[in-house]
Amino acid sequence: MIQRRIRHGDISVGQPLQWNVYNDKGILLLAEGGHIQTQAQLDRLLELGIYIESTQTWHQPPESAMQQVLHAYYLLAVLLRQPQPPADFAEQVLNIARQIDSAWEQGAGVVMATVVLRHGGRYAVRHAVNTACVAAGVLRAMGPQAPERLPVLAAALTMNIGMLDLQDMLARQTEALTPSQQVRVSCHPLAGAERLRNAGVDDEVWLRAVAEHHEAIDGSGYPHHLQGKQISPAAQIVGLADLFCARVSERGYRRADSTKIVLRDVLIERGRHFDVTLAAYFIKALGVYPIGTLVRLANGEIGVVSGRTERVDAPWVHALLAVDGSAHSPPLRRDTHQPGLAIQDALSSMDVDIAIDMEAIWGSEARDFRLASQSLGRPEATNSSIDYSNYSI
Q1: What's the Cα-to-Cα distance from 290 to each of 93, 190, 243, 286, 333, rounded to whole Å?
Q2: Residue 79 to residues 103, 135, 159, 166, 190: CA-CA distances in angstroms?
Q3: Would you call 274 helix, strand, or coil by DSSP?
Q4: In degrees to the nearest 10, what's the CA dihedral of 287, 281, 146, 210?
Q5: What is the DSSP annotation of 73-100?
Q6: Cβ atoms of residues 216 and 273 within 8 Å
Q7: Which is nearest to 255 in space by CA: 131, 171, 178?
Q8: Which end of the chain is more exposed for a tag (fewer CB within 10 A), N or C?
Q9: Could you tell me the pTM of the whole model?
Q10: What is the number of alpha carbons within 13 Å of residue 189 lying toward its C-beta?
């Protein structure tokens, strides 16, 4: 569950709650429909920190870059939950791709921070959108050398359509894959491409990217053990973005890796699993310390990478925790060019137990959806062909 902290103005004394309310450990404190009796009670709860499940707000029309990404999660979840693909399936996917491309242009740093820091909702959907977000950055870094953007982003959004339910199961599973699961995993690129064709997708860049996104240039990939230029550029972009997003996300059988470890492995594997030039564009797009990376500074503070500078090894960082473990409120901007503030180590998100107020760091482009005066029941399906009754994220 991904939690959103409730602030002053989101809740009124005596008014029925529109959502279940939790503490920072995810324990239910107040049920939907309940009331807070006094202002003193409300003030105390807000001081301690109370939260709702943030996925309940993602259906609202997006404005900020973060809202664009969260809304893309929602739209893809709705689309993929339908029993049969709608007649305009391909166009709906392309529209989500356009939204992700727009989010990157609107606030690239916020998009990367959202990918790295926001963990919630249905894993298969979140992972697909995050992969498309990273691919969008790589495509922009490639400039005129890049394939056409929308088919590549559409491929990222649908790369695992051949095993969606299994992917959600595997995200929670702690034991090794069973033989039948291994077969499904091995077959899912071709199964996904076939399912897309049956849904009306006829773009060969899109279809090849899905079918080949697990191939490796040394022939060690699957399903066909293609080599070198036999693998389409679009498939290599999607495959590398897929790997990055999978590695920085916690799953049942493994902890999340730090972004620096993942990027180190990309550099090690270039020329074997990944094209050398593509790996260089990947590092160019994300930097040595991608925005959203949690780091320890030389002075002992814990912070989050918040912006790029002319030096790839010295980005801007906002310090979250002081040396004694107390929280900086608000976070303090640090210039890591200074020796005493240099980055000492990159951390996994599992190493830092603190709620990060992204808007306090990145401003209005990191604004989450509003809570006050919003009805958070399921939205009506009027003016849309989507059946919201099948929605679950």
Answers
A1: 27, 32, 15, 5, 16
A2: 20, 21, 14, 17, 21
A3: strand
A4: -90
A5: HHHHHHHHTSSS--TTHHHHHHHHHHHH
A6: yes
A7: 171
A8: N
A9: 0.84
A10: 20
* 90: Cα separation from own chain's centroid: 22
The upper half-sphere exposure of residue 253, i.e. CA atoms within 13 Å in the direction of its Cβ, equals 11
Q: Of 231, 230, 187, give the one whose Cα is nearest residue 209.
A: 231
The span from the CA of 37 to the CA of 30, in Å, is 12
Q: What sign does the CA torsion over 227, 228, 234, 238 have? A: positive
Residue 283 DSSP SS3: helix
* Distance from C-alpha of 264 to C-alpha of 283, rounded to nearest angstrom: 10
* Alpha-carbon dihedral sign for residues 266, 269, 275, 276: positive
- Exposed / middle / buried, residue 293 (Cβ in 10 Å: 0-12, 13-18, 19+): buried
Tell me: the pLDDT tens digits for 242-284?
Answer: 999 988 876 555 566 777 788 788 777 777 888 999 999 998 9
Show the tokens assigned to 231: 């693998």
Closest alpha carbon to 82 in 95, 70, 93, 71: 93
- Other C-beta atoms lying within 10 Å of the C-beta of residue 325: 10
Distance, in Å, from the CA atom of 193 to the CA atom of 188, rounded to the nearest integer, reads 8
Tokens of 351: 């190493």
Q: Which ranges of 17-144 would DSSP assign to H, the alpha helix?
A: 39-48, 65-80, 89-106, 108-117, 123-142
Mind listing the pLDDT tens digit for each residue in 1-45? 456 778 777 778 887 776 678 777 667 787 767 778 888 888 888
Tell me how far the alpha carbon of residue 162 is from its chain's centroid.
20
Angle, to 10 degrees, between the axis of helix 164-172 and the axis of helix 179-198? 140
Residue carrying structure tokens 């809570």:
371
Which one, of 117, 112, 132, 138, lies nearest residue 291 by Cα?
A: 112
In the chain, beta strands by DSSP E: 3-5, 21-22, 28-30, 51-53, 294-297, 302-307, 316-321, 327-335, 343-347
| Strand, helix or coil for residue 156 | helix
User: Both tokens of residue 56?
Assistant: 């309940």
What is the torsion angle, in degrees rounded to the nearest 10, for the CA atoms of residue 327, residue 328, residue 333 and residue 335? Answer: -60
